[in-house]
Every structure is written in structure tokens, then in C-alpha cells.
Amino acid sequence: MRQQIAAANWKMNLTYVEGQQLLKDILDENIETTENQLVIFGVPFPYLMMANEKVNTLKNFYVAAQNCSNKKSGAYTGEVSVDMLKSINIQYCIIGHSERREYFNESNLDISEKLDLLLGAGLKPIFCCGEPLSIREAGTQNEYVEKQLRESLFHLSAEDLKNVVIAYEPIWAIGTGKTATTEQAQEIHAYLRSVIAKQYGQEAADGISILYGGSVKANNAKELFSCPDVDGGLVGGASLVAVDFVEIIKALK
Ligand code: PEP
């Protein structure tokens, strides 16, 4: 069975002490994960080392950065490079989140450059994609998201693709409390998997985890994750509340 993942995206929330407490509250629950289940905490840069120290003795628990530079190193004030993340033993990095695409003008090309740097350094990208409301209303979401995949991912070798996690996040569902129905989620996840199958073969498509993101909550996670092509979730708001995120982890297949 491919990996089932509960990934938290704290975004730009919580002080250091609040972050420590949230992690403690979640880890104190001593959640048992199965072989194929992963829990990943996407925390702000200044908290990466603290979070990594807390989870690094736990099997199947990891920490992710929420972004990285598309430049290798040099005079890019304020940027954080992939090599810096690697040097503090971070193993995952969220890239292409819709908030970065929208507020920081990240293009599919920028994201593909980040992807290459991450994979080159041995880190695993959590690649976000998803359509805005206008595209969903026009009914062209499949083509829209396929283009995001083609322009950022499909230059990869089949070997590199194995180290990528995809997070499908319809923008109209992020932070809005409006969740895609299980039918909507399953339909587009299955479509994306079929696109990957056409490009890389069925085995590669069957092996890649595709997470759903967009108002995943404790009370809808089980239903969403039960869809055959939904392999867990990327969770914003609900990942900031320990009891809720614990329930979401427990909802993994
Ligand atoms: C996200 O941050 O990727 C996200 C899906 O947020 P939320 O769960 O709050 O909708």
C-alpha cells in the first residue's frame, strides 16, 4: 500500500512556545502509526530544529519546511536554501502552495526549480497544486491541474518521481471551511493518477501519494481519506489544534 500521510501546515502561525506546546500535546498522545502511515509537521523556518528534535526519535514522524529558495546559494537576502534545510536534517519541504503562488507570484517554472534542488539534495517535496474557484465553476479543473503537473513535475525521471508527494488543494477550499465533496476529491485524484500513469506507467502512478488539502477537519477526514485515491491530507487550520490534528492522524487508512 502506498504511504498515507497526515501533513500539518502551520503557515505563519504560533509563537515558538506555542509551537512547542502544540507538538508536545500531539506527541503526548503516543499515536501508533502503521508501516505505511506518515505524520509530517510543516512548521515555520525558525522552529524546524526544535520540531525535528521532538520527532526524530519517533518512527514515521517527520518535519517539513514550508518553502525553499529556487536558487542554490548566494546573494538572495532572506531566502532559505535547500542545502541549509539539508544541513539541519530536514527531509520534507512543501512547495507550490497556492498562497505562495498567489502572494509571492511563484510560477510553475519556479516550483520546478525548487523541486529539482530538493530532489538533488535528497529531500522530498510535497508538491501542491489545485484550481481557483473560477476554474472549478467552468468545469476545467482537470486540465488546469494537469498543466501544473506537466509544467513542474513531468521533466522528472520515474526514479525521482518516487520521492515526490502530491497535495491536491482546490484553492476555493483552503481556509474557507468549504471542503470538496468526497466525489469531487476522488474524481480529480483518480484523474491525476491516470495522467501520471500515462506519463510514467501504472506502477509509478499506483505508488505516488496524493494528499487532499482544503478545510480538512477532524469531522470530515475519515470520509475524505476513505476515497481510494486520497492518501491523506495537507491540513492548515485544523493542524493548529492538537485534538483535531490527532483525530486527523487517526483517520488515515
Ligand atoms: C493548507 O494550508 O494547505 C490548507 C489546506 O489549509 P486549511 O486546511 O486551513 O484549508
Write a concise synopsis of the structure shown.
With 253 residues, the protein is of the alpha/beta class. The chain has helices at 16-27, 48-55, 82-87, 98-103, 108-121, 133-138, 141-152, 158-161, 182-200, 202-207, 221-225, 242-250, and strands at 4-9, 37-42, 61-65, 92-95, 124-129, 165-168, 210-213, 232-235.
Describe this structure in words.
The model has no long low-confidence stretch (mean pLDDT 96). The protein has helices at 16-27, 48-55, 82-87, 98-103, 108-121, 133-138, 141-152, 158-161, 182-200, 202-207, 221-225, 242-250; strands at 4-9, 37-42, 61-65, 92-95, 124-129, 165-168, 210-213, 232-235. It is an alpha/beta fold and 253 residues long. The protein has one domain (4-250): Aldolase class I (TIM Barrel). β1, α1 and β2 form a beta-alpha-beta unit. The longest helix has 19 residues, at 182-200. The protein has 12 helices and 8 strands. The N and C termini lie close together (10 Å). The site of phosphoenolpyruvate has 14 residues, from β8. This is Triosephosphate isomerase. Keywords: Cytoplasm, Gluconeogenesis, Glycolysis, Isomerase. The active site is at residues 97, 169.
